[in-house]
Design brief:
By secondary structure, the chain is α+β, with helices and mostly antiparallel strands. Helix content is about 30%, strand content about 15%.
């Protein structure tokens, strides 16, 4: 597969309808699904940890979103509604949950120096919630911790020690690790319903439009903050901080914007991620005929982009993530480019949920999985070079595609239009299950001052 430059006329950005809403029935089905998994695991209840950054598990189950503080959700096999333990400021958000929940004040979760006189102890709040000390309880941390990362630990949980200590003080039986019931490639959150995919697509569309507006505002002499502001951020919850950064010799794509003035020849990277979808682009601040651009494309941008194209063309339900990881490594092996991290990953409300795309992975890609095409290129030979084509997408079998088409026609029409762009303009061959969620999916302008000059597949 070879790539060459093509001048493209982009269509106008889509006008978005109101966001899809997750109904109470969706949350109840998820809670029932968790209860079923608890029963199979021989557990009476799950306690799900959350904080401001690690909100995704509790929000997935209940629609509750902790603000400033930590929180716990208690889901018991024999209870009709979940119970949420929250601090002073988050307790009122129990009323905004997507399913009826019982909120219990737990002031240990409140910010420093706030009132703790009413109910400080987590163990006291658990007793009020009706959790029996003899219950068999599984705790859901915010991520899976591999056994080799915590040798000698009976249970290694991504939960603060002060929480675990209080759980241990209340419970008579050892705590089980139930994180894998929700998290990981085999967890409940790995495969999404039509409702969640439609919401992912809506937010991925907004994120990608913001990134492309930022690129179109890119001009030498403007500051990073100027061009980031021109992207037109909306007030949706962010899955990660806004990234917009430049550098004359190299660039760290994770950086937030500053008042640095952008100059011709700089490396530039920008990314925006809302809950459910992120978009990133990186390249040279130059016109397509600028000095050094041809060499940059030949040595770095084109080899990297060929890997992006191969990744998309490899996607199908049932293929293992390890097979795709190997194909990308094999493709890049003769070039100066290699991947910094995995060849893509799962995404959800959190930006990086997990990934099946690692060497030797036998995890099969499933219908309903949402991904980011996130292959971060690096080169020991050309350490300052920067390129990125990161977009959100999903895999859906025929039944799920039919449901999206029938229930969310605007979402469906956008994905179909993007597929046509990827096949007819970029030259890709896509499997039927691939649903692009980003505006200008897979479009790569290596010279960012010529944003309509794209690399495409040679026919």
């Amino acid at each position: 597969m070879t790539a060459s430059l093509t001048s493209v006329d982009f269509p106008q950005f889509s006008q978005l309808e109101p966001e899809p809403q997750l109904g109470e029935g969706t949350y109840r089905a998820r809670i029932d699904g968790l209860r079923s998994r608890l029963t199979k695991a021989g557990l009476d209840a799950a306690i799900v940890y959350a904080d401001r950054e690690h909100y995704a598990n509790i929000s997935y189950l209940t629609g509750f979103d902790p603000r400033f503080e930590e929180a716990l959700a208690l889901v018991a096999v024999d209870q009709s509604d979940p119970i949420i333990l929250a601090g002073n400021e988050s307790l009122s958000f129990c009323e905004k949950a997507g399913v009826p929940v019982r909120g219990i004040l737990c002031q240990s979760f409140s910010l420093p120096s706030q009132d703790r006189s009413r109910q400080r102890r987590i163990s006291t709040a658990l007793a009020e919630a009706g959790l029996s000390p003899g219950a068999r309880v599984g705790v859901v941390g915010w991520k899976l911790i591999p056994r080799e990362d915590a040798p000698g630990e009976d249970v290694a949980l991504a939960v603060p020690q002060f929480v675990l200590s209080e759980l241990g003080a209340h419970l008579e039986q050892p705590i089980a690790d139930a994180t894998g019931l929700l998290c990981g490639v085999e967890g409940m959150r790995a495969a999404n319903e039509a409702d969640q995919l439609a919401l992912h697509e809506h937010r991925a569309t907004r994120a990608s439009q913001t990134v492309w507006r930022t690129i179109e505002a890119l001009k030498p002499g403007r500051t990073e903050l100027d061009v980031s502001t021109a992207g037109g951020l909306v007030g949706l919850p962010l899955a990660c901080h806004v990234m917009c950064t430049s550098g004359s010799e190299s660039v760290n794509g994770l950086s937030s914007p500053t008042d640095r003035e952008i100059q011709v020849g700089d490396r530039f990277s920008t990314a925006v991620g809302y809950w459910g979808g992120l978009c990133c682009r990186a390249g040279l601040v130059s016109a397509i005929d600028g000095p050094g651009v041809e060499e940059f494309i030949e040595r770095f941008a084109a080899p990297y982009y060929r890997a992006i194209l191969a990744w998309y063309e490899s996607l199908e339900i049932g293929i293992t993530g390890g097979a795709i990881s190997k194909s990308i490594s094999d493709l890049l092996e003769p070039t100066p480019v290699r991947t910094l991290l995995d060849a893509g990953h799962l995404t959800h409300l959190d930006e990086w949920f997990d990934s099946p795309f690692w060497p030797g992975s036998e995890h099969e890609l499933q219908s309903g999985m949402a991904f980011q095409c996130d292959i971060i290129p690096i080169s020991d030979e050309f350490p300052g070079d920067a390129a990125n084509v990161e977009d959100s997408l999903a895999l859906a079998d025929r039944q799920l595609r039919d449901e999206l088409r029938d229930r969310y026609p605007e979402c469906w029409n956008r994905t179909v239009s993007r597929r046509h762009f990827m096949t007819d303009v970029l030259g890709l061959e896509l499997g039927d299950a691939v649903l692009p969620f980003s505006t200008r999916q897979a479009a790569f302008a290596p010279a960012l001052l010529s944003p309509t000059q794209l690399l495409t597949v040679d026919s």
